[in-house]
Each structure stands twice: as C-alpha cells, then as structure tokens.
Amino acid sequence: MRMYDIILKKRNGYELSKEEIDFFVQNYTKGDIPDYQAAAFLMAVYFQKMNKQETSDLTLSMVNSGDRLDLSGIKGIKVDKHSTGGVGDKTSLVLGPMVAACGVPVAKMSGRGLGHTGGTIDKLESIKGFTVEMNRDSFLGNVNTIGFSIGSQTGNLAPADKKIYSLRDVTATVDNISLIASSIMSKKIASGADAIVLDVKVGSGAFMRNMNDAFELAREMVDIGNSLKRKTIAVISHMDEPLGLAVGNALEVKEAIDTLKGKGPEDLMELCLVLGSHMLILAGKAKDIDEAREMLKNTIENKSALNKFKEFVQAQKGDINAVDNPDENLPVSKYKVDYNAKDEGFIESILADKIGMASLVLGAGRETKESTIDLSVGIVLKRKSGSYVGKGDTIMSIHGNDEDKIKQCIKLIDDAVIITKNQVQAPKLIYGTVV
Question: Which parts of the sequence belong to the Pyrimidine nucleoside phosphorylase C-terminal domain (predicted)?
C-alpha cells in the first residue's frame, strides 16, 4: 500500500477503506509519512469530504494510535460531557458536582486552554494548591470515593489527533466537518466514557458560527459515538454572548462556586440542568427530563453538589477556603475599572468573540502555548442582551493588572457592545438536541 495511491483515490472522490485510513493514521503518527503527503491527503479530504463510514473509521484509527483510559474500575455508567468551546464556559465546574451528587460518576480528562481564557485545568489552578497531576490509581480512586474528578490529559491519548491537528492548523484544512468531528470524538472515545453528552456552541464566540454548521457537526459526532457503541447526544447552545457573567479564570471559578451555592446566573444554571438531565438519563438514573431536572435542582437546594465540589477540591490538594470564601482566597487583580453605557437604550448584543479577545488582551488566555496566564484578570458582565441601560450605567467591570492592557481592552469592548433604541428580546439559550 502506498500513500500516493491513497491521496489519488481520495482526490478523485472515491471512498477509502478502513485499511487505507489506518495506513495513513498509523504511519503518519509514527513519522513514516512526510508532512507534504499528509497535507495533500488532508486537502483532498477537505474538498472531497468523507462519508459517515470513513469518518467513523478515521476516528477509531486515531483512538487506536495511542492509549485508552480504562475506566472499568469505576462503578456505574460513566458519562462524559464535552463542549466545543466558548467564552465564559465554566460548565464542567458546576455540572460535574451536580451529576456526581445524583450518583453518576464523572471522570473527566481536560486540557489547558489556548485562546480567550484558560481551559478547565487552568481555571482550577486558580485555587491555591490544587493539582491536576495524578497517577491513574489516584484518579480512579477519587472518582470511586467522591464520584467526581478532573485530571490533566495524558499526552498519549489519541496522539494522531494532536499531530494531524497541528498540520491542519497550518494548511487551511481545519474547517471540515469530518476532520473536526473525528478530532473531538477520538479524544472522547479514548477517555473511556460509556456515554457522551456534547454541548455544541453556535455564535460569534464559538467555532461554529452558523446554525446549519452547528447541527451538521452535532449530527456527525452523534453518529460517530453511536457507531462506536457509545450512547451519544448533542445539545446546540447559544454563544453569541458569553455564558454566565464572568470571563477569566479565577472569576469563572468564583461564579461556578456561587452557582453551586444557588446564587449563579440563570443561563449557566439552565445549561447545566439541560446537559445534566441528559447525563442522568444516559446513566439510567432518571427516566425522563422532568425527573432528572428535579434531581439536579435538589443537589443545589440541599447543598450536596457544593459539598461534592468541596470534597473534590480537598482530594486534589486544593485550599477548601477558596470554596467557603472565594472573595478572599482566589487571585484578585490590582485594578477594577467599570465600563459604562455610552448611550441609553436596549443592549442588542455583547459579542462573545470581542469579549473573548478583550480578556485575552488582559492576560486571561494564551496567544501561544508558551504564554503565561494571569489567573486574576478578566471581565464580569453586569448586564446582558435584552437589558435596558441608561447613559452611564455600568455594563461590565474590567479586572486587570496593567493599565495599558486595560485601555486596549476597552477599545475591544467598544466594538462588542451594541445598544439600540428598540426593545430587544433576550436570546434563546438552547436551539435543539440531536440524538
């Protein structure tokens, strides 16, 4: 078998066999296929696309390129949640404890962020002493004891995906549904969950900017999961403005803790109830959405989710005082500057991508893998789309440590906030579900 023939076959629009896809993935991962041939192959896929069978075969081949996390030592049905990424998305920090408090084990492998703000791992490191570096036995032991753990992704889960994505990133072949779906799902399958709930974001702050593409990606990923014997469901959610109010690592951790205490923003709580309900149903803990929602609400009202989060923090060597009193025990920026409305009217939009870039300018995210994150900085919204504001009313607060960066941030926020004289309806949070 020759790589030349595989490239030619896909370039001419023919379906590739499992063996041909395996040949490409395994040999490219080992370094036996040069980048120039891999790039030609990816461009052929980009233009000719892959059918569902090819996409499933590609995903499984990437899974088989490295290790699989064996979760068989954890009692019960393991359900994972994955978000395609957005601005202010701290859902895992709230959802994990809620679902675990309902008796469903949550064993989550997460990565560090590259972009607007840190990933889940970076956010958690806002808590003094918190560690994500655990051996396999400690990770599984925490899930069995507490019901919930988040650990740092091992470098050898789906290594083919990491290598192929790096090449896609520099050859203009990122934006292809089959390649996106197989990239996401290979890591989820390798992570060992029995069932998967996907949160597919759509809007200015999301990877998928329009509704048709979001639903197409959701369908592709659900089909992959089901074809590989994982019960999979996808929820399409709004990301034209930030989720919740806080954008920035320590600020998002505080908001997650507030939400577990029953004092969080409505949209964050609602998204957790929607995603969590599907997780409970897939795990066999609830018969329908109504029963699942009530179970999840009870974990907030009776503080069992908050207590579960405390156990989780303590087990991973974090300072429990950060949960009891986050204002005094999480990183705090030197400056806090209010951003006020320049006119009166209704907020038509607070563009998530602009707010994300503004938080990146402050230092809340990484422009490159080598960048250092400032865990204390970020933005906290005081109003959201649909709200009425008078001239001079505070729309958001900027938390920063560098006055020049704060000035740059304000310029980006000027482009993010759109105020109109006409009344505006608050945007819809959930657009649909794909099963």
Answer: 346-420
Active site residue 238: no
Secondary structure (DSSP) of 119-171: -HHHHHTTSTT------HHHHHHHHHHHSEEEEEPPTTBSHHHHHHHHHHHHT
- pLDDT tens digits along 349-408: 999 999 999 999 999 988 776 778 999 999 999 999 999 999 999 999 999 999 999 999
Using CA atoms, how far apart are residues 269 and 266, in angstroms rounded to an integer?
Answer: 5
- For domain 3-48, give its CATH number from 1.20.970.10, 3.40.50.1100, 1.10.287.610, 3.30.1340.30: 1.20.970.10
Is 342 catalytic? The answer is no
Clarify whether 136 is annotated catalytic.
no
Burial 294-317 (b: 16+ CB within 10 A, else e): ebbbebbeeebbbebbbbbbebbe
At residue 291 the predicted structure's pLDDT band, cuts being 50, 70 and 90, is very high
Interatomic CA distance for residues 91 and 422, integer angstroms: 32
Asked about 82 being catalytic, the answer comes back as yes
187 counts as catalytic: yes
Catalytic residue among 81, 116, 163, 187: 187
Its CATH class, for the domain covering 79-324, is alpha beta
pTM of the model: 0.94
State the pLDDT confidence band at 114, using cuts at 50, 70 and 90: low
Annotated catalytic residue, options 10, 78, 81, 82: 82
Catalytic residue among 57, 80, 161, 194: 161
Per-residue pLDDT reduced to its tens digit, 159-168: 999 899 999 9
- Which of 168, 201, 254, 310 is flagged as catalytic? 168
Would you kindly state where each structural domain of the chain is located, as residue ranges? 3-48, 79-324, 333-420
